[in-house]
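Example (one chain per record):
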Amino acid sequence: MGEWFWDVTVDVSDRRGAANALELFTAVHAQMVHQEIAAGWGQTTLSLAPRDAVAQPLLTWQGASPAGQAAAVDRVGLVAGRLLSVRSDVPGVWFESGAGHRAEKLFSLGLDAWGEGGGLVTLSTFSDAWLTLDLRERAQPAVHAENAPRLAAVLRGMSEVLGSAPDPGDPTRYAHPTATGFEDLSEEGADYDDSWGTFEVPARWQKLMRLLPDGYPEQGYESWTDGPVRYVKVLSRDRVMGYLWAGTAEDAAGYEPRTAAGEAAFEEGVPWLLHFAKARQAGVPPLAALREVAGSHGVSEQHDIDSLDMLQEYSGRH
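Predicted structure:
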């Protein structure tokens, strides 16, 4: 959707450069939590590597909060010629009609710090809740009014913590970042009439297909229908991960990952789609396969919706 950059200085004079860098990173994250726009830590990755051989890191780590890794990284040393990179998916909450909606990757927070003392903090966002137009170029003044001031407050807070002003990233196919959020596109319009359908839906499908065995598209049902669909919610630990669906009048069925559930939503769909492929090979009609597959996993409540397009949009937003 958009991103912002801050140039920072990291104190490496006392051989605790890594600890100082991670302290800065966690302070920025704490500011986002204080603003009640972030909801804890998501998946975080860390690497310390020579700048001329970043593919051969001296230290790597994956987890949630990186604060506890300072001592380990300092033992290796953030010294001249080395690069410390930290990336964290930040879950958070956006609002619509006063109701909060959690997204497991509302933001991505990044830090690159090099041993000579310089650094760059990056914030990226993946929600259209901050925009005057949604991803289908429909005006959303109420959603914008609820959320845009919160994003502006986070950008101000980060600038105070980091001691520098944000440098907005380049315009994207969705929106134009500014120092306080995003430009108002309600008059000129977005660059694309339907960014969601043009870019995001195909990208989600391709990402899902990469997780499946070769030849799946030929084995499974048709992946698109223009008619109504019936769907069931796919749950994991009482959280909706996606929607398993079947066309009510066509030989089509599939799975829509719920964007707000994050990367796990894609992985969750793989066994369901493989079950669908087996059902099709056995000659089972899509609706019967939906009942069979859902029933075998303890999912019984089925819902009807007017089109797959509507289900895809819902799965991407809520």
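Caption: The radius of gyration is 22 Å.
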